[in-house]
Every structure is written in C-alpha cells, then in structure tokens.
Model the fold of this input.
Amino acid sequence: METYQTKHETPGMIRFVQRLWQRALSQPAVVLAVMTAILCFAANHLLVITDPVESNYALTAKEMLASGDYFSPRIFGNYWYDKPIFFYWELIAAFKLFGISNFAARFFPALFGVAGILLAYAFTARLYDRKTGFFTGLILLTTVEYFYLSKAVITDMTLFVFYSACLMAFYIAYSEKRPAFYYAAYAFAGLAVLTKGPIGLLQPGLIILLFLLWRRDLKALLHIKMVSGLLLFFAITAVWYVPMYLLHGSAFISQFIGVHNVLRATVSEHPRYDVWYYYSAIFLVGFIPWVFT
Done:
C-alpha cells in the first residue's frame, strides 16, 4: 500500500514543486527579498559586537540616546567628529525600537542589505529584463563582501545603497531622457554625504564625469539640472551640517573636514596596509565565489 502511494503520489508532488518554482520565478523581486532577508537577518542576535569599529559606532549611538542630543556624536563623554550623522540615526532608531542589543545594532545594515539587492534587481531589470535582474541580485547577494557588510555595524552598506542609487538615477535620467531622475541622483548624493562625508558627492561625481568624457558628451553637463539639483543637495545636507557648525564652530570644521576627511584621504591611517595591491586583494576575496566568472 505504501509503495503504491509513493509511486503514484511522487509525480504529483514533483509537479506541485515545479509549479511553485515557476510562480516564484514570475515574482523574482519577492523571491530575492525573501532570500536576502533570511541571509541578512539570520543569527544577527547572536553576533556579539566585539570589533573595535563596531563598538565605536554602537557606543556613540548609545551615548547620544542617553544624552538626548541627536545631532552631536559623542563617545566616552567627548564629542566625536569621525563620521556624519545618518548611520548614528539608524542605530538610535533601532535602539529605540528594539532596545540596545546586538540585533538592534545590526538591524539597519541588514535592512539596507535587502534594499541594495532589490535596487540592483530593479535597475538591471529596467535595463534588460527580470531574469537578468534576478541573477544580478542573486550574484551580489551571495558574495562574501555583501554578506559581511549586511551584518557589520559600520556605514558601508548604507553608503552602498545611496551611492548606487545616485549613479543609477543619473544613468536613467541620462539614457532615458527623464530629467526628474537627476533630482533623485542629487538627493541620494546628499544622503550619501550625510552617511560618509564629502566623498558621497565627490566620488559619484567623478564617475559621472569620466562617463561623460568616455561618451564624449560633456555638453550633457548643461542639462543635468546642476543649479537646482545642487540646491536640493545642499538642502538635504544642511539638515545636519549647518546645526553642527552652529553648535561647534571651528572645532567641527577642523576635526571633521580637516582631520577625518582631508588628512585621512591624503595620509595613510594604517601604514602597514598602504600597499598598491590592497584594494585588488580585497576585491578578489570579497567577491568570492563569483570573482573569476
């Protein structure tokens, strides 16, 4: 009796699984979102914050929350001008929602990890098709670097999403003649600057300039809504930079701009890692298992 049921029920089960898979592929964004959420959020409550950099971010947000001052990063009772405010706001929001815990500290990196995959899918699907978008998201999701950044209590995943969105919005505006997307690019650049500092504008701007040089289309600079776009950019960044200057004056400028941006961009902070092949090695390791494809 059991043998008879097995023989006659297995094909039906196979067909059921096949239909389920086909339906899943018809909704690739949903499949990617579920897979990414599982990978990014899994075991976050078990990952104890021990890394010195993670500890600095978590402790700074904890002290800001305790002080009630949500503008001035501080650590060990002293003002701390190392990074802009956006990631600290994420941590503070998570601590308020979930309490101060490992899971809370890793909540927004994981959430932005999901957003980054869906962004990659949406952009690639727009350029090509949903199947290409699905595999783009899947490849990105399963790289070592992305898995790490989705769980690390650092600014990088948030920066990745805003930085990528800036470039994607620019490309859509440029290639599809959709000027409104230029404003989205400026807005995302503003959020990137609130996350990491001036590099959030300078580096995407350099990439866009090189792209236009490659296309021999510098005249496009006349059509990218530069004046009104920069006004939008400055309005977004002014939310934090202006109050910080008014509150802390020259100390903020000299430490944040002078030390943590200009000096750290021109002088090696960790000289033993100051070798020409450093980022090539990081890329080779970070994009395992897909790097050689």
In short: Confidence is low (pLDDT under 50) at residues 1-9.
